[in-house]
């Protein structure tokens, strides 16, 4: 790591040592000895700095602090040593302390911004940009004015297994009268987006998503039919006898469901400690539904044939018939959220509010969570988050657990587990909204990303959802009851990201 800083950051220590030695001999012997020791250890840490002996420098500096020796140059050297050893959270602490000794110090501000950037606290680092001189702004790697940051494209395929709905016996219930369910088939989806900046303190994102799914409305019912049972012939003619049958029917009506979404996000840092994330997703879903109905159908047929006159006697009866009609459905919904982050060393507190309309129903959500970097960098990251949702006066909640690991400079691995009642919840700053027809009880996701080059990153994600799929049936002639059965879906997502 090459850090181009003014020579006085390093060389002033020699002057500092000389001044301290001179003052030491002017004081009482005991006090002079203390100052001489301070000067000695200061020269030692500077020597370790020149030798790039980072670990020993940190150990010696920590010992000096325990002895009550703490000052600007020591913190700067220890911070740089921590950066070199990728202990970025520790480096941040040292540079903050250096600024407490020397307020508005340009090199300390520059190095603090670098330590924040290495922890992906980018807009927080950007809040320091205006405090830098032009020389240090150039060294920071940050730029003012519009510039693209990164762009991505993801393509996913959802496999819902071979179990496509229930058969007649399962769907119609114990009475075998009527049952209905709605389910989705395998599908693909696409999303793409662009991150860009107007200045380092702001980060914006705009993206779009498209989903197309074949949705099936399945019905199990009894079809009443009038069948000729027998014909009795006599001298006067033929008498016709009929029977009514109840034939089991299982019918499917397939419809195309499409969902289009636009997503906007704005991140802004109020300081190098905290930031806000506001986001808005606008999405439209539309499909047709098949609606069943019952009606009486009048049937006329032959009752008797008079052989002497050649005339027919007819009869009429009414049978209950199930008919189907199609209705169009479309909804325009949104999810609007505001989240905040506050950083203290390796710990980040998060929280947010979301107001949404999902399938034309109003929803309000509260998020509260945290992030911990146990190793003081991004090699190991843990996140936890509690989500509470109130929708149409009904409450539900969920909990999210994430663990990320970077085994190498180019590779990142992550496991993310969300469980609870997920329907109509939003996560990732409203980027994902669970507007599923099934009751979603858990989501497990594993992902791996690899930096092919400085600009190109590839990502592969696997996602497992567990659902409770609803179906309705008649337990008798009048009461429609609801039940559920468990099913799963497997999603595979491939992504490509270009970093400008």
Overview of the structural elements:
27% of the residues are buried. The chain is α+β, with helices and mostly antiparallel strands and 500 residues long. Residues 5-33 have low confidence and may be disordered. It has helices spanning 8-26, 29-51, 54-66, 72-84, 88-101, 106-118, 122-126, 134-140, 168-172, and strands spanning 147-159, 178-184, 187-197, 202-233, 237-269, 274-306, 311-344, 347-358, 361-372, 380-391, 394-405, 411-420, 426-427, 432-433, 439-451, 456-474, 480-499. The two termini are 21 Å apart. Strand 11 (394-405) and strand 12 (411-420) form a beta hairpin.
Summarize the SSE layout with pairings:
Layout: H1 8-26, H2 29-51, H3 54-66, H4 72-84, H5 88-101, H6 106-118, H7 122-126, H8 134-140, E1 147-159, H9 168-172, E2 178-184, E3 187-197, E4 202-233, E5 237-269, E6 274-306, E7 311-344, E8 347-358, E9 361-372, E10 380-391, E11 394-405, E12 411-420, E13 426-427, E14 432-433, E15 439-451, E16 456-474, E17 480-499
Antiparallel strand pairs: 1-3, 1-17, 2-4, 2-16, 3-4, 4-5, 5-6, 6-7, 7-8, 8-9, 9-10, 10-11, 11-12, 12-15, 13-14, 15-16, 16-17
Q: What would you say about this model in short?
A:
The chain is of the alpha+beta class.
Q: What general form does the structure show?
A: rod-shaped
What is the structural class? alpha+beta
**Helix-strand sequence:** HHHHHHHHEHEEEEEEEEEEEEEEEE
What is CATH's topology name of the largest domain?
Answer: Porin
CATH class of the largest domain: Mainly Beta
Number of domains: 2
Helical region count? 9
CATH superfamily of the largest domain: Outer membrane protein transport protein (OMPP1/FadL/TodX)
Q: What integer is the average pLDDT?
A: 90
Fraction of residues in β-strands: over 45%
Helix content: 10-25%
- Describe the largest sheet: 15 strands, antiparallel
CATH architecture of the largest domain: Beta Barrel
State the separation between the terminal residues, measured CA to CA: 21 Å
């Amino acid at each position: 790591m090459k850090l181009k800083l003014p020579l006085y950051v390093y060389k002033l220590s020699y002057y500092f040592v000389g001044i301290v030695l001179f003052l030491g001999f002017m004081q009482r012997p005991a006090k002079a000895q203390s100052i001489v020791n301070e000067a000695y250890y200061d020269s030692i840490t500077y020597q370790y700095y020149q030798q790039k002996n980072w670990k020993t420098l940190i150990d010696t500096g920590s010992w000096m602090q325990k002895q009550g020796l703490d000052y600007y140059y020591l913190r700067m050297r220890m911070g740089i040593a921590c950066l070199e050893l990728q202990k970025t959270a520790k480096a941040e602490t040292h540079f903050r302390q250096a600024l407490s000794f020397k307020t508005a110090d340009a090199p300390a501000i520059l190095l603090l911004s670098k330590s924040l950037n290495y922890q992906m606290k980018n807009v927080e680092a950007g809040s320091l940009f205006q405090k830098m001189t032009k020389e240090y702004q150039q060294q920071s790697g940050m730029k003012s004015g519009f510039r693209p940051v990164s762009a991505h494209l993801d393509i996913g395929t959802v496999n819902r297994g071979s179990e496509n709905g229930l058969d007649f016996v399962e769907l119609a219930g114990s009475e075998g009268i009527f049952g209905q369910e709605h389910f989705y088939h395998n599908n693909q989806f696409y999303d793409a987006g662009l991150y860009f900046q107007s200045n380092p303190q702001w980060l914006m994102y705009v993206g779009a998503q498209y989903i197309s799914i074949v949705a099936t409305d399945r019905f199990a019912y009894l079809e009443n039919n009038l069948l000729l049972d027998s014909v009795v012939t006599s001298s006067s003619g033929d008498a016709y006898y009929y029977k009514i049958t109840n034939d089991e029917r299982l019918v499917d009506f397939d419809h195309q469901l499409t969902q289009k979404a636009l997503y906007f996000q704005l991140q802004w840092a109020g300081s190098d400690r905290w930031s806000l994330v506001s986001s808005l997703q606008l999405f439209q879903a539309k499909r047709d539904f098949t609606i069943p109905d019952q009606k009486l159908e009048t049937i006329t047929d032959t009752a008797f044939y008079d052989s002497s006159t050649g005339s027919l006697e007819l009869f009429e009866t009414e049978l209950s018939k199930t008919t189907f009609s199609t209705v169009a459905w479309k909804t325009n919904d949104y999810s609007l959220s505001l989240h905040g982050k506050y950083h203290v060393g390796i710990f980040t507190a998060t929280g947010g509010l979301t107001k949404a309309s999902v399938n034309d129903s109003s929803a309000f959500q509260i998020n509260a969570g945290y992030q911990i970097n146990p190793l003081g960098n991004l090699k190991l990251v843990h996140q936890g988050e509690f989500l509470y949702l109130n929708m149409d006066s009904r409450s539900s909640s969920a909990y999210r657990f994430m663990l990320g690991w970077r085994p190498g400079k180019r590779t990142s691995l992550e496991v993310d587990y969300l469980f609870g009642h997920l329907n109509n919840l939003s996560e990732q700053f409203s980027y994902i909204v669970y507007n599923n027809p099934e009751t979603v009880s858990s989501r497990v996701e594993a992902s791996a990303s690899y930096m092919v080059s400085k600009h190109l990153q590839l990502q592969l994600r696997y996602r497992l959802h567990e659902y409770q799929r609803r179906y309705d049936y008649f337990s008798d002639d009048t009461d429609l009851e609801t039940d559920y059965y468990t099913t799963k879906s497997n999603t595979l997502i491939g992504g490509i990201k270009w970093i400008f």
